[in-house]
Recover the amino acids of this structure.
């Protein structure tokens, strides 16, 4: 784990196409690392019975934005003091940007965010299906009065954490990826 983009995990990716069969992860990290190397059922008998495989499809940006707009809680990840921090945030999508509120004295507002990652997903445990969207890009504090008025007028859920959350930040994705997972046909 922790390999860089030019490491062994990245080298295994070119052979994968946009519709790749994967199985639910129920094993150790060894399985995750080997999955990128196209482990077959012959190499690993724990792949389960036929019909339990899952199919994954890459989502186009338009569908990523449409799906992200249906949720209100996601996760913001960024590096702070050399460690990766991930926080749940209530958010709203507007003009292909992700806006979220935080407190002036909280970790998010007082950190040098620079670039961050945002993830939102939906999972159906009964059908073993769902989707996940990951956006990466710079994060800036919203200071435009007109935009702030628009954002305060949106139906943004009240944050669960106690305290006042009156600062808006914007993540403007430079990279947007989405994946839908469902039972293979």
């Amino acid at each position: 784990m922790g390999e860089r983009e030019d490491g062994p995990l990245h080298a295994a990716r070119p052979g994968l196409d946009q519709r790749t069969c994967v199985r639910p992860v129920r094993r150790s990290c060894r399985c995750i690392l080997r999955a990128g190397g196209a482990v077959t059922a012959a190499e690993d008998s724990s792949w389960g019975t036929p019909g339990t495989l899952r199919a994954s499809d890459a989502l186009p940006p338009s569908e990523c934005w449409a799906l992200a707009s249906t949720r209100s809680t996601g996760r913001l990840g960024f590096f702070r003091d050399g460690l990766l921090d991930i926080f749940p945030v209530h958010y709203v999508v507007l003009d292909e940007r992700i806006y979220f509120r935080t407190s002036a004295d909280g970790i998010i507002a007082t950190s040098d965010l620079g670039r961050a990652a945002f993830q939102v997903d939906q999972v159906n445990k009964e059908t073993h299906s769902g989707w996940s969207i990951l956006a990466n890009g710079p994060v800036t504090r919203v200071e435009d009065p007109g935009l702030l008025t628009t954002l305060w007028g949106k139906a943004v859920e009240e944050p669960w954490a106690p305290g006042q959350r009156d600062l808006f930040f914007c993540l403007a994705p430079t990279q947007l990826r989405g994946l839908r997972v469902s039972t293979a046909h």
About this structure: The beta strands are 19-22, 54-59, 73-80, 83-94, 97-102, 115-124, 129-141, 167-171, 175-183.
